[in-house]
Automatic annotation (TrEMBL), chain A:
One of its GO terms (biological process) is transmembrane transport. Signal peptide: none annotated. Keywords: ATP-binding, Nucleotide-binding, Transport. This is Peptide/nickel transport system ATP-binding protein. InterPro entries: AAA+_ATPase, ABC_transp_ATP-bind, ABC_transporter-like_ATP-bd, ABC_transporter-like_CS, Oligopep_ABC_C, P-loop_NTPase. It comes from Pseudarthrobacter niigatensis. Gene3D superfamilies: P-loop containing nucleotide triphosphate hydrolases (3.40.50.300). One of its GO terms (molecular function) is ATP hydrolysis activity. Residues 20-274 form the ABC transporter domain.
From TrEMBL, chain B:
GO terms for biological process: peptide transport. This is Peptide/nickel transport system ATP-binding protein. InterPro entries: AAA+_ATPase, ABC_Ni/Peptide_Import, ABC_transporter-like_ATP-bd, ABC_transporter-like_CS, Oligopep_ABC_C, P-loop_NTPase. Its main location: membrane. GO terms for molecular function: ATP binding; ATP hydrolysis activity. It comes from Pseudarthrobacter niigatensis. Coiled coil: none annotated. Signal peptide: none annotated. Belongs to the ABC transporter superfamily. It is found in: Cell membrane.
TrEMBL record, chain C:
It is a multi-pass membrane protein. It comes from Pseudarthrobacter niigatensis. SUPFAM superfamilies: MetI-like. InterPro entries: BPD_transp_1_N (IPR045621), MetI-like (IPR000515), MetI-like_sf (IPR035906). It comes from the Bacteria. One of its GO terms (cellular component) is plasma membrane. Its main location: membrane. Coiled coil: none annotated. PANTHER family: OLIGOPEPTIDE TRANSPORT SYSTEM PERMEASE PROTEIN. Belongs to the binding-protein-dependent transport system permease family. The chain crosses the membrane at residues 9-29, 99-126, 138-168, 188-209, 246-274, 294-316. This is Peptide/nickel transport system permease protein.
Automatic annotation (TrEMBL), chain D:
This is Peptide/nickel transport system permease protein. GO terms for molecular function: dipeptide transmembrane transporter activity. It comes from the Bacteria. InterPro entries: BP-dependent_transpt_permease, MetI-like, MetI-like_sf, OppC_N. It comes from Pseudarthrobacter niigatensis.
Amino acid sequence: MSHAVHSPARPDVSSLTPALEVRGLGKSFHIGGLFSSQAVRALHRVDLTIGRGEIVALVGESGSGKSTLARCVARLEKPSEGAILVDGVEVLKRDRFQASREFRSQLQMVFQDPFGSLNPAHRIEHFLRRSLTIHGKGGTRQRGSEEQTRRRLEELMTTVGLQADMLDSYPHELSGGQRQRVAIARALAVEPNVILADEPTSMLDVSVRIGVLNLMRKLRDEQGISMLYITHDLASARYLADRTAVMFAGEIVEEGESLDLLANPAHPYTQLLVSAVPDPARAGSYDPIHRAQLRQAVMASASCAFENDPKQRCSSEEPVRHQVGDPLNRHWVRCHLYRPRAGAGGHALATEPEPGD
Amino acid sequence: MTVSQTSFGSHEPVLDVKNLTVKYIGDSRSTTAVNDVSFSIGAGEVFGLAGESGCGKSTIANSIMRLLKDPAKIAAGSISFGGKDVLAMNQDELRRFRWQDVAMVFQSAMNSLNPVLTIGEQMADIFTTHAGYPRKEALRRAAQLLELVRMDPARLKSYPHQLSGGMRQRAVIAMTVALKPSLLILDEPTTALDVVVQQEIMAQIKDLQRELGFSVLFITHDMSLMVELSHRMAVMYGGRIVETAKAHDIYTAPGHPYTQALMGAFPPLTGPRIPLKGLPDGVKFRNIPDLAGIAPGHFVAPFDADAEAAVLEGAAQ
Amino acid sequence: MRFILRRLGFYLIAFWASITLNFLLPRFMPGDPVSRMFARSQDRMQPEQLEALRKLLGVDNRPIWEQYAGYLQNILTGQMGVSITRFPTPVTEVISSQIGWTLLLGGTALVIAAVVGNLLGILAAWRRGSALDSALPPVLVFIGSFPYFWLAMGALYLFGVVLGWFPIRHAFTDGLEPAFTAEFIGDVAAHLVLPALTIVLVSIGGWMLGMRNTMIATNSEDYITMAEAKGLRPGRIMLRYAARNAMLPSVTSFGMGLGFVVGGALLTEVVFAYPGVGYQLLNAVQGLDYPLMQGLFLTITAAVLLANFLVDILYVRLDPRVRSN
Amino acid sequence: MTSVILQQPTEAKAARKTNRGFIHGLITNKKAMTGMAIMLVFIVLALAAPVLFPDDPSRITGMASLEPDSEHWLGTTAKGQDVLALTIHGARSSLLVGLTVGFASTFIGILVGLASAYFGKFIDEALSLLTNVFLLLPGLPLLVILAAFLPPGLGTVILVLTVTGWAGSARVLRAQALSIRSKDFVAAAVVSGERAGRIMFREILPNMASIVMGTLLACVIYGIGAQAGLEFLGLGDVSTVSWGNNLFWAGNEGALLTGSWWVFIPSGLCIALVAFALALINYAVDEVTNPRLRKIRKPATTERGAAQ
Amino acid sequence: ATGNKSGGTDAAANASAFLTIPREDMGTFVQNFNPFAPTVNPMVQQSIYESLLVFNPAKGNSVPWLATDWKAADDGKSITFTLRDGVKWSDGQPFVADDVAYTFELQKKLKGGYEYLDGVTAQGNKVTFNFNKPWSPALYDVGQLSILPKHIWSALADPEKDANAKPVGTGPYTEVDNFQAQSFVLKKNPNYWQPDKQKIAGIKMLAFAGNDGANLAAANGDVDWAPQYIPNIEKTFVSKDKDHRHYWFPPTGAMINWQLNTTKAPFNDVDVRKALSMAVDRDQVTKIGMSGYAQPADCTGLSGNYETWKNTQVKDNCTWTKHDVQQANDLLDKAGYPKGPDGKRTLKDGKPFEFKISVGATSSDWLSVANVISQNLAEVGVTAKVDSPDWAAVVAGYEKGDFDSGIVWSANDPSPYKYFNTTMGSSSVKPVGTKASDNYHRFGDPKADALLSDFAAATDQSRQKDIANKLQEEYNDVAPVVPLFSGPEWGAYNDTRFTGWPTQDNPYATLSVRAPTTVLVLTSLEPRK
Ligand SMILES: Nc1ncnc2c1ncn2[C@@H]1O[C@H](COP(=O)(O)OP(=O)(O)OP(=O)(O)O)[C@@H](O)[C@H]1O
Ligand SMILES: Nc1ncnc2c1ncn2[C@@H]1O[C@H](COP(=O)(O)OP(=O)(O)OP(=O)(O)O)[C@@H](O)[C@H]1O
Ligand SMILES: [Mg+2]
Ligand SMILES: [Mg+2]
Ligand code: NI
């Protein structure tokens, strides 16, 4: 009775401009106030491409820079370097100082916390209606089209699987899953090409998580919206995303077709991550010795798995990509010899950080 | 009613909770957070308590430690620990009972360390209060504890904010085993932690348990984790226990629709992608009846299978 | 250390802004000190002498920016000039002759109010719903609602005049020679009771309620529950865990208060004829005595900044969290 | 994650209370009701003053220093003015000044606090510095200087008190706005394309209702108290009838020395009552929005968790 | 500060007690006894330094002090003082004529003024003041200046900047003792020239930040002499000990005028000034505004200080300083300021008859006065608004001449010359916009000018009186200002410990502690036996 999920036939990605392309994105945070010049490097030369109608998962440990990437792309933060292309247009050049409404109508974001991302002071209708009004969607720009707007609102609610009468409710009257659906509907109201979803289910109760994931998949299938799905739950990335990228200390270290990537993790960090996912089906519990080795490999990999492959070049100075397995899977891994500069994220692995001053 | 349950470890239960009912008395209305819950934990047993958020798990844990604060009120039931009635203890007995007999890792272990005291001071407090050690000796003991959880004893001088989440968690775990209690309550000890760290912490707890032989009440809503770790477990819903059995039994044959939904909510790491269905929004179970046995050691609250299925279908569209 | 340095930067800017304001404000006032003196003397001065007096007092007629440059230079070299209303006494002498009493009165009142208020707050929060918690706050709030001078005058007449329990004026009995003898110190203490008590009365409610509320918030923190679960003794939890953390906001207020003590308690000084800089400042303002005004402003600003700076340092000691960010 | 969920509903509830529950909470709160009742009495008296005492209350008559009797319920001053009339007319200016100062300084505080929190960076640094400088400035001399500099009148008093009073409220409001600024719903509003002004006033502000209310009340108390203090020193507008001026004249005419308590007591008591009433409402607001502060019931049974 | 309520019965205690005097406008003292300081410590000019003569306004006589005699030259261009023999400075040095000459030199150098003074010559025990014109008002000007010891002051580099912490003077109590911010003591001058008159042990000054504290001390019996304003003195002070507590408020202060800016309409109209004056109920003004302590003015404009100068003819036939609403109304109607149907008058240009009365905010008594006036004026249809900013702003308006009207002090010399010169002398009128230091109302009268210059040249007292009579007639005609009342010289005392106070029956001085006459009191008091 179970059947493999059918991936919709996607147009040849290479022939079209991708929905979202990130090139060499970097971000440093200045910490301290007026009189301090300390900086934390949260992102470093991140390249990422999301095709039309594609879901790409971004996984990685806590603090590796996933949210920072999303916030930079959503232009909630100003990237220090790099380019962001939406529909082939360099948005950082087009709207230098502030994100334009045009940009906002192309790209929307769904936040991690459904309890925090809906203003408790407003009714559900407010969020959707504002999104429509700002971008002139759903007939809000025409005169006397209240009827049409109303219909659009109800339609949105139905799309995300909510009753239209919930429009009059306040956020606190809704359950977490329902709230997250409202947040998604709010993004949809703008009719964007790309949705960035930053851990959209991590705050939700386990039993309702899967429903939201299913909804996102449905939107992709039916409306062809591209998505960046950020999580640190590998299993859900595998469940939802076409491709998965693994982030480590502000850099993407491995990327590939989801099933392939999880089946054959190439980077030590990915391996560590995969091994840490609790899985009741796994035979036998976890092996501390194996873990210690993995950790060692992540912390100080002294060798690269591709060192002896004549077709692949290794370097400890610049990040070199190695092709993994079948080129069709577009699975690559960064050379293990290369080490991200210190000062970047990586809280979890560094279980013994330097004592604070 | 009391459900007689076989304990995993010894036959003598360390903790016996009977018909516990806890209410939060509000200004206008009261909620029953825990409703007529009974379970017991044997010596050396790891007992899991799973369930959706807000179903009363932490309330049970706090009742056992008698840490409930206003407006919570234990309305009925009994809690006995090693034969002693916990609810009848006076202040002095209670103080000795706490931490010596039962220790607890709080749900928000990250925040359960006093931000302005060093880890060392907070650990030493336990020894100076309960064992009457002088400060120096207490600190030496604390250093040993840190080594037990594989932390550098130099960390005794650190303040909580100087430690990563995982290290804070470990420090708290080290504290809990300071007095070698017979029961450890772990209230979602790894939420808010990275999977990698989560795994390490859980492994550490298992090691300690193997070494020290205490019983564990393990609370989470992460079913995969729970199944991996516990011997026996109970699934809660809306203040009631809806299913209890050996962990593996529940994993393989969940009886209650809610348990099934929980189990179905975790996509697997291997095999083909299969569409999964969680508990649809808006599905609520009400008036859950008492447990009934469906297999040896496997108890499920009876439910109307057809009606529930219809509800599930309907809500899922 | 970085934290401290950064604060230092802030303080320097704030200091500059304040002294600049101190410079500008008096110069925006209408009239000049000599006309004012003349108005006050009500023709006991000869009008022909006003010009000479202006010259004598050094009323500055340079362009404002030159005056400002001179002013900054004087501040940097610590020269505050000569008071106009108290000519030819130097400003430093006018201030130093009174600042001691100001500090004694303000400091005593502040310390008593803060210590007692905070202790009451701690106890009230720890024993929620007890008589202390439910009865005392409204009473203190009510007392604190009275206009200060009204309360002070009432207390002066009742305890000083009618009952005669306390002296009704000055910092010590006139004619006593200040000395470190028991008699003199006792005399000073007796004179301090009413002025300090009235200040304490109107301010203690704020301290108590502030402490109580933060303490209640702190009491529901997880680490308090944890401390309880650890089986620690209640007294230890209350002081070392709850109060220690709840104290932090109070420390900030205390620092602010400490700085402003230097400004003097004008109303108290007026009602109890207590010597101090508060009335001096009022006089300086009304007599357009720029040098004295600036000197006092400078002292107050410096004291406030210093007190805040000390509190910042103390804060770093008390709250390790601020050290790292 | 779960811990956050646990907290969120209460927070959401607290915010919702800005609409309905907040008002309800205040109405059922004894402190709030007492406070509001007292305030109501004063406001009604202030409004009705011209009807109750149509004559100029400061009109000087021959009947000096009369003790309270049936004709002059609160006696007369040394100048023969009716104390009751002065007190009730005084409520007008005192309440007017208090309320105006309260609203004005809260308003500035909101503007500065919101702008500071929303724009952050340089604007925040600059505004915070400004706020801190104003906090550092010794208030009283500033009051005295401004009072001397500007022409006398209620306007001046209001301006002076606002200038010295806004900084405190700005600091409080900034802190709160900052914490709301970091909430996801603000980012969500940004992402949906809302403009700055709308975010500040429609998204952030409604969630600060209770703290704005608290600040407002504190500012009103400050306004009334500071006006009285200024006037007592003779630095206010001496020609208006207000509680502070009544006390100034009472002191001037030696009301205490001559034992004319009826001249001295009423205005002081009125200030205290108004301040007390406002403080009560303020504490009630605190209690309603922060359930932890609410009065707790006596334990009913022995079985109570962790009694101390 | 425990009171000495019980004191007074013990003669020995009284003999060693200090005469305690409050100072209500100095919250604290600083050790500054420099007589050139604009705000000197109390008693510097009263008990430490002395002048050549002392004018007592209560009796209108002059008491020879450091000079035993003086004589004006016939041409009125010089005065010669004969100094008293045997006077010594408190450091034992003899007091010589050079000291006097030096004092004036220093005074002119540091403070200016004395434009009429050409030079001072000292010869033996005679000092001659030479003027550049006949100038009779000079007598009191030079006669009442505190004389300083040359041997001390000439040694100072910056005499005006010296704190003079240990003053050396000829006065009865010169030795500063136990100096504190809140009080200090002046003890006997060991070398005083009238040792038999130093009957009290010393003077103790107390600092108070306002009247309230000083009044409380007085009411409590903690001070012997209370020179400050005490409200309702009968009740608050006297009633507590009727036998020992007394007060005497002779009207010897300056005339307090209501000055109308005569450069502005309608105040340039003498009828308006007189009508407004008639509308003012001076009894009410003094009773309510001044607690009944002041004496209403008459149309000579002279205060009680000039009782002997008053022209009885003018004084007995006053019209425009008497309260008369009817006549005020008539006069205004006649002068062309008609009353409208709402009872309010309009000016000639049709604007409402409205103006401001400016008073410094700190002068609460004058504020009450202004309020009463404003109430009075309402009865004749004139709207006067009381404007009470800070004194600085008020005075700035006076000086520039852009004020409407104000309540203003006036000159209070032994001779009425200055009063008339500053109320109607053209020489004191400055154009609007130029800083004026007196004659703020800017009124000059050629007729008065002629009389004034005659007066200055007259050396003979009876001639001066004649001219003064004419000046009063002129004043009565032109009403340059609206005189309100004679400023009272407050003074109250408690004779439990010291006796010999000036009283109405024995007016050898006033009860002021800041006047030249104070030294007369200090040398008359003696401990109660
Ligand atoms: N505003 C900021 N100021 C300074 N440092 C920041 C800021 N925001 C993020 N960082 C730092 O940047 C790094 C990346 O943070 P980010 O939030 O992107 O991680 P993440 O992968 O989303 O983690 P999580 O899974 O916990 O959400 C971290 O080291 C973090 O400390
Ligand atoms: N202080 C309180 N006042 C009122 N109701 C409360 C209080 N604390 C908890 N509750 C209610 O009691 C119920 C059980 O709460 P509890 O914290 O035990 O849940 P939980 O199972 O631990 O949830 P989670 O998985 O989120 O930690 C919830 O419905 C909650 O709303
Ligand atoms: Mg994140
Ligand atoms: Mg819980
Ligand atoms: Ni390689």
